[in-house]
Amino acid sequence: MADVSVEVPQELLDQLERSGLQGVDEPRRVRVALAIHLFTTERISIGRAAELAGYPLIEFHDLLRELEIPTVTYDREEYERDQEAVDRLRTRVDRDGSR
Length: 99
What we know:
By secondary structure, this protein is mainly α. Helices cover 68% and strands 0% of the residues.
């Protein structure tokens, strides 16, 4: 992987510092922010994001938790499947319990 140098306006660095990334050293802050963005937009996995950010997975997970960024997605489709399973279970319990 090739490294690329880019100019980052001080204002952007200041905004990143106020965004909750103040615990991340300044040279690494943009890299971490980009990795978080790629993860939250579902372009990469949490493991790959941690790797790109230069963090062990558990520490990256902790950072996301501190930033109140969910590390697991639970979409509407998954919710509906779970609700159907609960409904089937309730039906079975009601049927078996009425004997």
